[in-house]
Design a protein that fits this description.
Helix 2 runs parallel beside helix 3 and helix 7 packs across helix 8. Strand 1, helix 1 and strand 2 form a beta-alpha-beta unit. With 289 residues, the chain is an alpha/beta fold.
Length: 289
């Protein structure tokens, strides 16, 4: 039984039912929306493996829907195939510029549509698997620095191009060296994993956690305003402060940056969060003195 979910978006009930029947027969879990607005609302709370999208729809056409989906999902995360009767050069070019993965004619043979769907789902799955292997930190299981820089660049570009807002949290654990020196690296490793597990437990599915090196971590919070970012930090503090390694209570210093602050370059945003974090760490040390 194929487990992948496919979302069909088309204002034609006839096309929806015909396509749903075809895909269901081979084992796909098929969902359907009759408008772009309905599809975007659905994708806010649900994940799918591929979208089949019509171009000619009232109110919001397929190009706009595709652009809106790409604000939240990268090309290798969610394939989008335009299923359309428009096959002229301008339509195809505009579709790819809006973020489409492929085009299939509504008049195409069923086997062609099934083959294209299968290829894009398999390709997307393979890319995700390769990414997970190469971009995961072995110690903690969260993403590594390489993926952090890549993801931040991607979200920064989306913010500049589409106006997508996101928050950045950069945080540094206090006392990891002390734990390592006093109790050994096994205790320090336990501290790192405990913090990661605690933070992962409260983040949303869309939030991304990265180990940037040593005791420094970064979180990207997509589709989040400044207030939401601070709320996330407050929840993190409550969760992390509840951790004790032997007799050492765990805490962290943090810095925040937000895409609404209109940074010129990605490095400027990262530097701002990093500087803010070290200012926080300095204040925490002064408060202890």
């Amino acid at each position: 039984m194929v487990e992948e979910k496919i979302l069909i978006v088309d204002d034609s009930v006839e096309v929806l039912e015909k396509t749903r029947e075809l895909l269901t027969q081979v084992g796909y879990n098929v969902l359907a929306c009759t408008s772009g607005e309905e599809a975007l609302t659905f994708l806010d709370d649900n994940s799918v493996d591929l979208v089949l999208l019509d171009i000619n729809m009232p109110s919001m056409n397929g190009y706009e829907v595709c652009l809106r989906i790409r604000q939240r999902h990268a090309l290798d995360d969610l394939p989008i195939i335009f299923l359309t009767s428009r096959e002229d050069t301008d339509s195809v070019t505009k579709g790819f510029h809006s973020g489409a993965s492929d085009f299939v004619s509504k008049n195409a043979l069923s086997d062609i549509l099934l083959a294209r769907v299968n290829v894009h789902i398999r390709l997307s799955r393979s890319l995700r698997n390769l990414r997970d292997i190469s971009l995961t930190d072995d110690m903690t299981g969260c993403f590594n620095r390489r993926h952090g820089v890549y993801s931040l660049r991607e979200w920064f570009s989306r913010a500049r191009r589409y106006g997508t807002q996101f928050g950045l949290i950069y945080f540094d654990l206090n006392g990891l060296k002390t734990v390592n020196d006093r109790y050994g690296h096994q205790a320090g490793d336990l501290m790192l994993r405990s913090v990661v597990n605690a933070v992962k437990g409260l983040l949303r599915e869309s939030d991304l956690l990265f180990r940037m090196g040593g005791d420094e971590f970064m979180i990207i919070c997509p589709e989040t305003d400044k207030k939401g970012v601070f709320t996330c930090v407050e929840r993190m503090e409550r969760a992390v402060n509840a951790i004790t390694i032997v007799d050492h209570p765990v805490s962290f210093a943090y810095g925040i940056a937000h895409s609404s602050e209109d940074y010129m370059e990605m490095d400027d945003m990262l530097h701002s969060a990093d500087v803010s974090m070290y200012e926080c760490k300095k204040k925490m040390k002064e408060a202890k003195a």
